[in-house]
Amino acid sequence: MNAYLKPVPTPSKISAPFWAAARRHKLVLQRCERCRAFIYYPRPRCPECLDDRLTWEEATGRGTVYSFTVVRRAASRAFSDAPYILAIVELEEGPHITTNILAAPEAVRIGMKVTAYFDDVTPECTLVKFKPADA
Ligand SMILES: [Zn+2]
Predict the structure, then answer these.
(1) What's phi and psi for 105, nearest 5 deg?
(2) How far apart are CA 31 and CA 48, in angstroms?
(3) What is the CA(15)–ligand 1 centre distance, in A?
(4) What is the tally of structural domains in the chain?
(5) pLDDT attached to residue 134
(6) Which range of residues forms the domain containing residue 82?
(7) Model confidence over 62-92: pLDDT tens digits?
């Protein structure tokens, strides 16, 4: 197995439950106990009502491509897997997540249905990516 060269996230006290769930191949989102909004990225207060009573709920893992670009030039040797797809996925629960789509660049379209895919990039880190729902 080749060493994974790209930078990996450093979980914070607030984001640690998200990354721990990803290790278990679960996508979880914060949810506000007061206004019931789903929240992503992890943060200490609800962006809708500012309440700090947030819990974690498992998400469906389903979403649609909100926007994307194809990265064709590697920014460094770590990104030599270009071309790859950098995308914003609108989750079924509402929040948008910046991610990668695992598909051929010419196959991706705005509005296409995608499902979460859990990429165990290191023994400690799993990244949440997406693949076409019909794949
Ligand atoms: Zn709220």
Answers:
(1) -50, -40
(2) 11
(3) 18
(4) 1
(5) 83
(6) 16-132
(7) 999 999 999 999 888 888 889 999 999 999 9
In a domain, 11, yes or no: no
- Spatial CA neighbour of 58 closest among 31, 87, 90: 31
**What distance in angstroms lies between residue 131's CA and the mean position of ligand 1's atoms?**
30
Closest by Cα among 32, 34, 33, 57 to 43: 32
Mean pLDDT, contiguous 10-residue spans, the chain (135 residues): 84 98 98 98 98 98 98 89 95 98 96 98 96 89
- Ligand 1 centre to CA of 2 (Å) is 43
Residues in CB range of 24: below 8 A, 6 or more apart: none
**H or E element at residue 19:** helix 16-23
Distance 85 CA to ligand 1 centre (A): 32
CA of 95 to the centre of ligand 1 (A): 13
